[in-house]
Amino acid sequence: MDRNAELAALARQAAGTAGVLRLLVERMNDVGWHLDEYSDEDLRTVAAALKGTAIMMAMDTGNAELLSELTGRTVHEIDPTEWLRKLRGDDEEP
Predict the structure, then answer these.
(1) Is the pLDDT of residue 68 over 90?
(2) Is there a contact between 57 and 11 (Cβ–Cβ < 8 Å)?
């Protein structure tokens, strides 16, 4: 398996684990159960770190489709030079 495929699989696993961890915290709260060693906020912080790491992995692969999948937003790949040109409002080629 190539590096990008491995990163994509790992990113999906990290994002999935983050979701499961957030759900676990909610369900534990529903039944009044808490961990002695870690607060709910600690667990939410770990979940957020996992999700952020998954997004960074997706960005590293350059896979816009994966990034869209993980963020829940449509992501388009664009040439940075073209983006800057449009941002400045330049109609001429650089």
Answers:
(1) yes
(2) yes
Are 61 and 7 spatial neighbours (Cβ–Cβ below 8 Å)? Answer: yes
Query: What average pLDDT does the structure give for the chain?
Result: 91
Residue 33: burial class (beta carbons within 10 Å; 0-12, 13-18, 19+): exposed
Span of 20-24, 31-35, 57-61, 80-84 with lowest mean pLDDT = 80-84
Distances (CA, A) of 40 to 30, 49, 80: 12, 14, 40
Residues 15 and 50: beta-carbon distance below 8 Å:
yes
The tokens for 32 are: 């009044």
Angstrom distance (rounded) from CA 34 to CA 22 = 13
Q: What is the pTM of this model?
A: 0.77
- The torsion region of residue 79 among left (phi > 0), alpha (psi -120 to 50) and beta comes to beta
